[in-house]
Write a structure and sequence with these properties.
192 residues; alpha+beta; 6-stranded mixed beta sheet
Length: 192
C-alpha cells in the first residue's frame, strides 16, 4: 500500500514539474517583455505638478498666455488698463531700449522693452505674469516699485513667473529687461 501511495505522489510530482518546466520559460519571457515595454515609454519632460507649485493659482494665466493670436505690443507702446487680453511683447536689444531705470540684470545680447500704462483709479494690486525668465519693473515717477509678492515656476511650459505690484492710478511704465529672446508673452490683470 505504501508503494502505491509513493507511486501516485511521484507521478503527481512529475506532472507538476512538467507543467512548471513548460510554463516557467513562458512566464519569464512575458515578464521581460512587460518590463521592456515600460522602460521604452517616453516620460513627460515636465511633471504636471511643476505648474502647480506657484504661490497662487496660475492655470488661467497659463491658458491665456498659450492662446493663439496674442495681441502684439512693441517697445514704446501705450496700454490702457485693464487690458482683457494676453500680450506678445516684441522686445529690442537692451542697449537700444531707452529704459526709464537702469536694468538690474541683463547680459550682453539681452533684450528689453518698455510700455506706458494708463492705470484707472483707484490704486490697487495688479499682477504681471510672464512666459519666460526676465526682469520686470513697474516704474512710477522715475522709481521702480517693489513687488508686493512674487512666485515663479522653473519647469512649467509657457509660464515662468508672476509678480504683484500695488500700482497707483495714473501714468506708469512697465519695463522688461534681461530677456534672453526678442519675444515675451505677458498678462497684466487686477488682483483685487
Amino acid at each position: 500500500m505504501a508503494s502505491l501511495a509513493d507511486s501516485v505522489r511521484g507521478r503527481r510530482r512529475g506532472a507538476v514539474e512538467a507543467v512548471v518546466s513548460l510554463f516557467f520559460p513562458l512566464l519569464l519571457t512575458v515578464g521581460f517583455l512587460v518590463a521592456a515595454a515600460g522602460v521604452g515609454r517616453a516620460q513627460p519632460a515636465v511633471p504636471p505638478e511643476d505648474c502647480d507649485r506657484a504661490a497662487w493659482p496660475l492655470a488661467t494665466d497659463r491658458a491665456r498666455l498659450a492662446a493663439p493670436g496674442l495681441r502684439p505690443v512693441r517697445n514704446g507702446d501705450t496700454l490702457v488698463l485693464p487690458n482683457d487680453s494676453a500680450l506678445r511683447f516684441i522686445l529690442v536689444p537692451q542697449a537700444g531700449a531707452n529704459l526709464p531705470v537702469r536694468p538690474r540684470h541683463g547680459e550682453e545680447g539681452a533684450f528689453a522693452g518698455v510700455v506706458d500704462l494708463k492705470v484707472p483709479p483707484p490704486e490697487r494690486l495688479w499682477q504681471v505674469t510672464v512666459s519666460a525668465n526676465t526682469w520686470i519693473d513697474v516704474v512710477v515717477s522715475g522709481r521702480p516699485l517693489t513687488p508686493v509678492a512674487f512666485t515663479g515656476v522653473h519647469a512649467c511650459p509657457g509660464l515662468r513667473k508672476s509678480l504683484r505690484f500695488r500700482i497707483p492710478d495714473g501714468d506708469v511704465r512697465l519695463q522688461v529687461s534681461g530677456a534672453e529672446g526678442a519675444r515675451l508673452d505677458l498678462l497684466i490683470t487686477p488682483v483685487d
